[in-house]
Amino acid sequence: MVETLESIISFIVVFGALVFFHELGHLLLAKRAGILCREFAIGFGPKVFSFKKNETVYTIRLLPLGGFVRMAGEDPETIELKRGQVVGLLLDGSGQVEKIVLNHKDDYPNARVVEIEDADLEHGMYVTGYTDGERFERFAVKEPSFFVVDRQEIQIAPYHRQFVAKTLGQRTMTILAGPLANFLLALVIFIIIGLLQGYPVDKPIIGELTPEGAARAAGLKQGDEVIAINGERMETWTEIVNTIRAHPGEPLQFQIERNGKELSVTVTPEAKTVQGETIGLIGVYQPMEKSVFGSIKQGLVETYYWTREIVTGLGQLITGQFQLDMLSGPVGIAVSTGKVAESGIYYLMKWGAILSINLGIVNLLPLPALDGGRLLFFAIEAVRGKPVDRQKEGMVHFIGFALLMLLMLVVTWNDIQKFFL
């Protein structure tokens, strides 16, 4: 029970962090483009916690399975003033409209009650109507201004603050920023691991020794520089590994340098069968170093390596070399995260970086409801010279989201069968 709880907590923390940075990428680029961001949410379902800062409500929701940034204009604005509708207008000192009260008008005795004749809250920013039942007036609507519905304020979004009003380049970068943030997060994590733990180097130096290995028993120590093995000069760690693997159970004469002195140590590799092949092992890890430049270089190498591996895996899935029942959903990822967490913080950090890359790549797939699907519609817009009809695009994304949820159910059931049944 305790292990299950630890796995769940580890999953929520790791996956929540990945979603946070993904959505933060969208948020920052949207704000930079001048888009009104109504909500920044981690999770789906009912709100657990929320607060408002500036224009945006920041929320944590019950189900930690994703997140979203709700931008004005992504969908048609839900509140629309219609002719004949009676509203209350709260005015500032200069007579401009600050708030439009749609109901519970009795709570606002200072509001000017107006029967709407016409309103343009996107381009012209005005409201016209009749006060006192007969006098026609025109009211300018200021920025920012708000609807008041059920005593809750909803900011009015002029057209220039809406997602659809921005250039194709601005919209593309806003959507692309989420996956890019995941790649950047992975790179930063790998760099931090390198700075704190060190990174492996291909030098002929003995790294950390295992407690029960042949190297410790023979007298080798961490930091020993291997000059030669059986008279053959060693220039890299790779050469040391290949030589040891090729001589299982055979005594090897190590010529080493320790504290400026040359020593000779005899080590007999333990014979071990791995995937049908017998190899030699002496219980030594690769040497590690710490430096800022080296950590950055290693971070780039790791990010590229795992990106390539994940893309290759997706290619195998598409070509049928990778079976659907081998995929993992939230349950499988939670179980794996719990197991990795038991190995230590650095393993958990590396696992988080790999998951972040995976999240970035999956979101770039040209599938409806994913960032890649939206980018595909932007590409079509660039070719056509005009956007795809918003209702048709919305329907495609809705169907795609439904299919993704179905896939999620399938892989979750597979995970339950795999780990619990």
Automatic annotation (TrEMBL):
CDD domains: cpPDZ_EcRseP-like, S2P-M50_PDZ_RseP-like. The keyword Disulfide bond does not apply. Its EC number is 3.4.24.-. It is an enzyme of class 3 (hydrolase). The keyword Metal-binding applies. Pfam families: PDZ_6, Peptidase_M50. Residues 198-245 form the PDZ domain. Its cofactor is Zn(2+). GO terms for molecular function: metallopeptidase activity. It is found in: Membrane. NCBIfam families: RIP metalloprotease RseP. Belongs to the peptidase M50B family. PANTHER family: MEMBRANE METALLOPROTEASE ARASP2, CHLOROPLASTIC-RELATED, REGULATOR OF SIGMA-E PROTEASE RSEP. This is Zinc metalloprotease. It comes from Geobacillus jurassicus.
